[in-house]
Amino acid sequence: MLPVKNFTDFIDQNSLFDGQSKILAAVSGGMDSVIMVHLLKSAGYNFGIAHCNFQLRGDESTGDEQFCRQLAQQLDVSFHCTSFDTLTFTADNKVSTQMAARTLRYQWFEKVRKQAGYSVIALAHHQNDAIETILLNLTRGTGIAGLHGILAKNGLLVRPLLFLGRDDIHQLISNLQIPYREDSSNSSTKYARNKIRLEVIPKLKELNPGLERTFENNLQHFRELEILLNLRVAELQQKVVIIDGGESHIFLKDIIDLEPKRLLLFNLLQPYGFNETSIDDLISALGKHSGRVFNSENFKLISDRERLILTKKEVGQQQEVLINIHDREINYGRYKLNVLHDDSPLIVKNNPMAVSIDAGLLIYPLTLRPWQQGDSFVPLGMKGRKKVSDFFIGEKVPIHQKEQIPLLINGNGDIAWLGGYRLADNYKVTKDTKKVVIFELISI
Fold this sequence. Notes:
The chain is of the alpha+beta class. Helices cover 39% and strands 21% of the residues.
């Protein structure tokens, strides 16, 4: 007899779906997915069957498709089927065959779900699959998230068979004489998961015949620990992360005494693509190396004096833009530069983003560009030249912002203005000035 009550209890306890849901059941033809659809039918759920033919095993793949089609007819449910050129996809995308098959099937399942109005996609993973996943993750290296195994519900993916182990399913198939298809590739140890299934788990079961039950208890502990950790990280984020424009600031004084520092910082920064190696390097540099930059694919983290600054990487860093005498508006990176010609010696005051320059000193075309090593100028109010890099240090400009500050370069190569910071003294308005050009930077 099928364990229908245990099946529906598990579904209800984990809020996988309800009696009004329309379920798309992913069926390969193997014993796991076959038991799942027989349970769905016996429990009275509204479902359809989806089958993928990956064309990897010749006649065997064709036989699987025919079997699943007949199973859908037998159960009187809708049948959805597709075929993939998996090997071509593998070669074109330079991924493993397993990864190609996974990508292709999940994309297609979601397409069918939307088109046919299914509520969820049901997958036939069971307890042993969860054990294999944990062992694989441990072998490759994992955080606590890799120890919770396969979740019963992950978005619109549901796994209503996780209350059963492989031996339970095999016994049901045998006792009820339910036909299914055997995938010959399951007996090959070429794949890491099969090696764990066929060689590692049998040895573990010699040590503990109740391995599935033990792992299920462990999984519950790991899931609860993950929830606890996530709550702590969310609390930490609320407490120490300060949003400033498009940046996130974390003051060193707030994290220097964190314990366990590595675990908490890793979980705080992992969503931005930083790995454990980056976190180790960051911890080593805390309070020691101002200006150190740590990179993930899309973000950079700067250790800047008393704080860490997290910012998204700029796409296509602006290099330089020419300004001709008739230009009135120029776009430069995240700024717009407005240019106003005034027939008076007007001086702009109390606006660091705008400056008046003696028009008679300007040689066109002018240039807007980022600072370069070796740049120097005479800051307003000073007599001697100063390196721009030293000026930035004196003004405590964060390292990641230095490359975003536009420098206004005169046609003779002089720096006339560090945009938003300081006019060059030799371009200031004097008693001899007749006309000015007003430059105003506006963030966009």
